[in-house]
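quick one, 146 residues, struct below
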Amino acid sequence: MDEERQGGMMHGQGKFNKGTKDLGMALLLFKGNQKDLKSWNKKFKTFLSWSNGKPYIYVIVDLAKESKSIQDLCKGTKLSRKDFEEDNFKVSQWLQMALADGSALIFAEKHDEDSWLCYQELLVIYQNNEEKLNWLQELWNILKTI
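---
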């Protein structure tokens, strides 16, 4: 990645490459804060729903579990193995850029060629940690009343 593109992405200036800049879309960064996961996840999925003229969201989700609108969006997408591999590579690159400034980067580095596994593991770990933190906060609140 050249310095100009990396500089814009690394400093959180929003648009990270000409492909999304032309669309007026920005790739949001996730720095590993659990409280930001839900919002980032929704925006990342929206970003993938129609980037560079096609839906890429099919690469990271189980379409059977997605909303009807996402299923309909991807329904007409006919892909070969080569198409999937190219799309998977793009999504992997976007994940690496989105996670580059925080502790969640480890998922992108660990699964640099498997965007589905990277995304799924990221969600599982951060959602489980959020549940644990919520449980601990509830416990702390109860202990404070004793």
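The CA atoms of residues 17 and 140 lie 45 Å apart.
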